[in-house]
User: Fold this.
Amino acid sequence: MFLFPDSDFPVQRPRRLRLKKPLRDLVRETHLHLEDLVYPIFVQEGEGLKVEVPSMPGIYRFSPDTVVDEVKEVRDLGIRAVILFGIPARKDEVGSDSWSDRGIIQKTLEAIKREVPEMFVITDVCFCEYTSHGHCGVVVGGDVDNDLTLENLKKQVVSHAEHGADMVAPSGMTDGMVKAIRQALDEAGFKNLPIMAYSAKYASAFYGPFRDAAESAPSFGDRRTYQMDPANFREAFKEIYLDLLEGADVVMVKPALAYLDVIKMAKETFPVPVAAYNVSGEYAMIKAAERLGWLDGKRAMVETLYAIKRAGADLILTYFAKEVAKMINDRTVENFF
Ligand code: PBG
Assistant:
């Protein structure tokens, strides 16, 4: 550790660097940029829809026609990327809408790519929104069958790629999913399509509002046989390492706020971009406390996003993306420092 040559007070006065705002701005170690942000968007089957998610104020479910205006708004704010989550008209045992040519994501990709081709569109690759039981794969004997699920994942990613996805993001914590997806994409001619793997995804209470939004809560049991135990740290190293061996281009830690140690480890250990998912419950907590007048929501948002960057995230998936982008653009974000 570095030791100050003359470490005694009054020679060292750390407050000197904090006394004037221009100097605080000059010496700030972490910055948040529009380029860091990925905005999650929910789409459901239908027309003319814009339905607010009750537990996520300011977040809506769109239909493939209305989502285009939302994506234009996101683009005009300077945000480069969105990630799509689909809610199909009909769910079944295996989630077949997820690989259908007329599936909700496929229709949405076509609409966005037709109207806003410059937007970088990531697709969440999973089954929980598409299955009648709400689990992230094919259920056999009361649990997700890993290897049968891999077969369906291959169909889903190839279909997303064919309909214009710019990157795929498998989120089911299926063993071997990155390898299976890489092979399927390569065989279908998409060798340059990157994979952002939800590598260290914990079994978290903070996904609650998302499951309302995406109607994806499991109808029995929970996700503890595939998502990670929140008490584990070294296991995250293993999951990230395996995903990289299998061909992941970007690795993700999820949720973000309760797992800053994992984000930091990922950034310091592996020479690849690290994504952090600032999840629905992290958003809802701040919005709820703000509504109650219990804290300053904007300050809490800015502090949270900077903390995630400080821990080492290269990109942040966040429902706050539009709100913070406005503040970056009009420079009011600086008022908080
Ligand atoms: C799909 C998926 C989930 C989230 C992203 N992809 C939900 C889950 O695992 O239940 C959660 C995102 C959020 O809470 O914002 N498997």
Observations:
- The pocket of PBG is lined by residues 124, 126, 128, 136, 171-172, 207, 210-211, 216, 279-280 (CB under 6 Å).
- The first strand starts at residue 37 and ends at 44.
- The radius of gyration is 21 Å.
- Residues 30-329 form a domain with the TIM Barrel fold (CATH 3.20.20.70).
